[in-house]
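Researcher: I need the complex structure. Ligand is manganese (II) ion. Inputs:
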Amino acid sequence: MTVAMRGDGPPSGIGGDALVVTAYSDELGTAAAVLDLAMDGELAAMVGSGELRGRFAEVTVLPAPPGISARRVVVLGLGDRDVLDNFRLHNAYTFAGRALRRRRLTRVVLAADASLCGPAVPDMAALCRAMVTGMLIANHEAGMHKSNPDAAPLIEEVTVAGVDGEGDSSLDEALSDAMLLADSTLRVMRWVSAPANTLTPTLLAAEVTELCAGTSLGVEVMDRAALESAGAGALLGIASGSAEPPVMIIVRHRGGSDADPTLALVGKGITFDTGGTSIKPALGMEMMKSDMGGGAAVLAAMFAIAALNVPCNVLAVVPATENMPGGRALKPGDVVRALDGTTIEVVNTDAEGRVVLADGLSLARRLGASHIVDVATLTGAAVVALGHVNAPLMSSDRALTDLVLRAAGQGGDRLAEFPMHPEYDSCLRSDVADVRNWGGREAAAISGAIFVRAFSGGLPWVHLDIAGTSWNEQANLREVPRGPSGAPVRTLVWLARLFARG
Ligand code: BES
Ligand code: MN
Ligand code: ZN
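Model: Output:
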């Protein structure tokens, strides 16, 4: 896979399978309008006749006219101008990449059209990053385990053209960023879609350990014995119904000095969630192989953070286990003791994510965290509230929230702040232990967050509930690519960069 920038001429002179230009609703983009001059106004005529509508993710493929070096002209619809944000821009190029792969057009030239810049995509660097990242993550392959793969060929070459500014280092940087961010996103997509029997906690830890070798990252995997001596009773409790041993995966990036703050990223690593004793219905349960999406994002972000040499300290902690209903499984009403000593009444074993996060956050604090961001496919309620198009953010700290929201804007992820009014705290009340793990169906995304916050030790803390955004399985939702999204890994990489700036 190669990605190149050409600053030295118009897109018409660059060879490849497809030259991609854009249209808004019923209106050609600037690069498309320029190209149309060489096409005797055919594109404008197609807009006029309604054949080319410029609707979001609409892909129109035409033979290239003489004088254009690429074989095909592709017009990518971006929909309404005023609702185009960084999330939609990434997604549009992912749809384009999927359509081009199906047509075997794998050497792609992207026209970087300055008219696409606006509030959400402020400059050419941001535009190039979104286009290239979106295009590259179209290479995610769903059918990895087919004996006779009918897979479309991969996008193998991406050239960004039509930007004046040859040698512009900010654009070179944007492209190398895009490749790193796409790699991280693809890794999360792969992990999240891996069948649970091919990605157990042990196998995930082994892969992370292998990936860390040869990088500046430090890695430690706590096994069952280490978890027992640390007193990680919450993670061990959830793991007790499974034959697969749990692990706590710890990855460290030391980009700052010991005196500098440490950003802890804690991710839910449930490699399969049956619900445990509080077992889930069979229909759709296979989706629960994706219940380690938070852990996957946190871990994949670390490789990009290390590669970028981000000058701050970042600590990733991922409590990983299956949630199974085996003979030793927790039963509703059982009490476990978390690593920080807090006792938890487990009234519903299907609210397992917050229980393992209790040990994750406790350990992050013990390891010197000064700020905590946790990421988890935590609640069905988050999906009910926001679907697959946005994710709830809940927090105890304004400044850290603002940093995360800015990072999400850069990464092309969407986050929406949910309230944490004190009245919600009652969901924690237990008659027999310090806290209970389930406070009923009402405001359940918020009560999940309230529970996790109880283990943040008063540190600045942000919680991202990505149960909806980590995977789009809604067939009717045509404006978001189907399958795993990799979210919010790019946000986490940007967060480290913004955190490093202080
Ligand atoms: N992993 C699920 C949440 C989830 C739902 C993730 C849909 C992705 C898609 C979580 O562990 C869970 O089971 N939550 C339940 C808890 C409840 C039944 C106690 C929920 O929120 O419905
Ligand atoms: Mn569950
Ligand atoms: Zn779960």
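Model: Summary of the prediction. The first helix runs from residue 30 to 38.
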